[in-house]
Amino acid sequence: MKLKKIAAMLMAGVMCVGLMAGCGSSDKNAQTDSTDPKDRTQLTVGFDAEFPPYGYKNGDDYEGFDLDLAQAVCDYYGWKLVKQPIDWDSKDMELSGGSIDCIWNGFTMNGREDDYTWSKPYIDNSQVVVVKKDSNITSIDGLSGVIMDVQADSSALAALQGDDATDVGKQIASSVGQLVQVSNYNTAFMDLESGAANAIAMDVGVANYQIANRGADKYTILDQKISSEQYAIGFKKGNDTLRDQVQTALDALEKDGTLDKIVKEWSEKDDGAYSFLSETWCLNKQ
Fold this sequence. Notes:
The protein has helices at residues 2-33, 65-77, 91-97, 155-160, 167-175, 185-194, 204-214, 240-255, 258-267, 269-272, 276-280; strands spanning 42-47, 50-51, 55-58, 61-63, 80-85, 102-103, 117-118, 123-132, 147-151, 178-182, 199-203, 219-221, 227-231, 234-235. The protein has 286 residues and is α/β, with parallel strands linked by helices. The longest helix has 32 residues, at 2-33.
C-alpha cells in the first residue's frame, strides 16, 4: 500500500512538472504571438558563431554585423537581445522547437522562400570559390580533380548540388575530384592552408573577411560567381507577427540613419576590409 502511495505521489510530481513546463511553453508562445511588441521582453537570435563578419565569437563575447543590427532592433523596442549560437545544420530544429525566435546570420532566402517567414532582404550576396594564390588555379576551369570544401547545409552547397544548383555550380561539382562538407569555414581554411583542400566554395562576404584576416597575399577569389542571392531574417513559418515587428523596427531605423551608421562602421573596420557590406546593403533599395 505504501509503495502504491509513493508511486502515486511520484507520478503526481511528474505530471506537475510537465504541467509547469507546458505553462512555460504556453507563456512563451503567447509572448511570441502578441501583436503588441511591449508584451515581448527579449529576442533570441540563432546564429552560426563561426560565420564572420555576420556573427562570431570574439574572446568571451559574440559579435558581428548581423548581431549589431539585431541589437538595434532590440534597443528600438526595449527588448533584451539573447545571442544564441547554434549548429547550422540544426537550425530548423532550434527554430521549430522555440529555442530561438529567428535565424539572423547571413541567411540566404533564395530557394527557401516557402520554408520560413522572411523579412525583407537586406544584403545582396554571392557564392564564390576561394583558392590559394600560389595554386595556379585562376578560373573554375582549373578546378578539375581538386578537393573542394563547403559548409554542410549551406547556400554554397545548395548552389553546387540539388534542385537549386546553378549551371556554374553543376559544372564545378561535376569537375572536382571530391566535395567535402565541413562544419565551418575556419576548418575549411585550415584545410586549404595545409593542402588537405585545394578550394573552398563559400559566401563572398565571409570569404572577404577571412582573407582580410588571414592574409590578402595568400588567398584569392575566382572571378566567376557560383550564384547570386540575398540575405534576410528567417522566422518560423507563419510567425508573421514577430516578422512584422522586426521589419517595422528595421524600416524605422533605416529611415532615421541608425542602420546606415552600423553599415558604415563595419565597412570601415580594418582599413575598409569589409567595404563589401556597404556595397551589398540593399534594404528598401530594390
